[in-house]
Amino acid sequence: MDYAASELTPRERYKVLTSFILPRPIAWVTSVGPTGVVNAAPFSFFNAFCEDPPLCMFAANRKPNGQDKDTFLNIQRTGEFVVNLADEPLAQAMHESSGDFPPEIGEPDYLGLKLAPSTAIAVPRLADAPWAMECKLWKLIDVNDDRRLIMGEGIHFHIRDELWDDKTMRVHMDRYHPIGRMFADRYCRTDDRVVFPAAEGVKKS
C-alpha cells in the first residue's frame, strides 16, 4: 500500500513515520526553568548530524492544550541544555519523565534522579547517564507554529568511565546497553547485534 503524505492527517503521518523509522535514539534533555527547577524530558525525534561542529537536533511539539513545553521555553530563555542518553537501568525513569509535570515540579527531583554539574554551562546533567553532551543553542526552526526543531552545538562530553577506551576512542559495546524508542509506549533493547566484515565495494583487477 502507499499514501500521499498530503492525504493523511498529521496524526496519521506521525504513525507512519514512527512505526517504521525504528529504533530511534532518545534525547533525554535537561534544562533549567526561570525559578531554577531542573526539567528532564525525553524526545525521540532526535539524532546527531555533524561532528564539526558537533550538532544534534530534536523536535519539541506543543502540549495538547497548545502551550509550549517547558523544555522549549527553558532553552529559548537560556540558550543551554544537556542531551543525556538512557541505558537499561534508567529506562523506566526516562519513560516516567515523559508524563505531564507542571513547571514547578522537576522530573529529576520527583523521580529521585541524581544531578551533576556541567562543565561549561549552567544546566546540570543526569549523573548516572552513560553519556551526556552539554549543548549551546545553535538554531531554532519553527515548523507550522506547532513544533520547534531545536539544534544544539555540543561543547562538552561526559562518558561513564567503564564504557570508554580512551586510547582507541571506542565504546565497550559489551558494557553499553542503550534503549531505543519504537512507538507508543514500546521501547527496545540493543544487545542483539550483528557484525559484518568491512565492505569492499567493487574489486579492481
UniProtKB/TrEMBL annotation:
Its cofactor is FMN. The keyword Cell cycle does not apply. It comes from Bradyrhizobium stylosanthis. Keywords: Flavoprotein, FMN. Residues 19-178 form the Flavin reductase like domain. The lineage of its organism: Bacteria, Pseudomonadati, Pseudomonadota, Alphaproteobacteria, Hyphomicrobiales. PANTHER family: FLAVIN REDUCTASE LIKE DOMAIN-CONTAINING PROTEIN, FLAVOPROTEIN OXYGENASE. One of its GO terms (molecular function) is oxidoreductase activity, acting on the CH-NH group of donors, NAD or NADP as acceptor. Belongs to the flavoredoxin family. This is Flavin reductase (DIM6/NTAB) family NADH-FMN oxidoreductase RutF.
